[in-house]
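Encode chain A's predicted structure.
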Amino acid sequence: MLRLKSAEPMNRIAAALAVARLCKGAGITKTFTPHGLGHSLDTACLDAGVPLRDVPDRRPTQRPTDHCAV
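Encoded structure for chain A:
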């Protein structure tokens, strides 16, 4: 989990800056975003055999696809 030193809630800009800082410190030259890292987590979970229903759901409560039949 990423946290600000000030203990203030982290907004999307602060999260993106933290990810960029961490990538730079690790010597990663590819650009990553918090959103892209979430997709990487999903892929890693599925590749490891985690059932889809157990993959973390980070979407908002009101999803644009709520009206779709599953």
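The mean pLDDT is 78.
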